Amino acid sequence: MQSPMVQLGKPEKVEGYDFYNINGTSVYIRKGIKVRNEKLHIFLRKFLWIKDLAVDGVSINY
Fold first, then answer.
1. Which of 9, 15, 33, 61 has the most C-beta neighbours closer than 10 Å?
2. Amino acid 3: pLDDT
């Protein structure tokens, strides 16, 4: 099963990504990603002492 993934840093091959500068933050989104309602939400998720970035708003076909 595939799930959305967020990584810090610039991708190795930027030609496979669309680039956006949002409020001074560089965002690379893989070309062909289907976004629900034209909104993608990247946020900090915390559980106990673990923190990571998560994404919501991506359509995944199983």
1. 33
2. 57
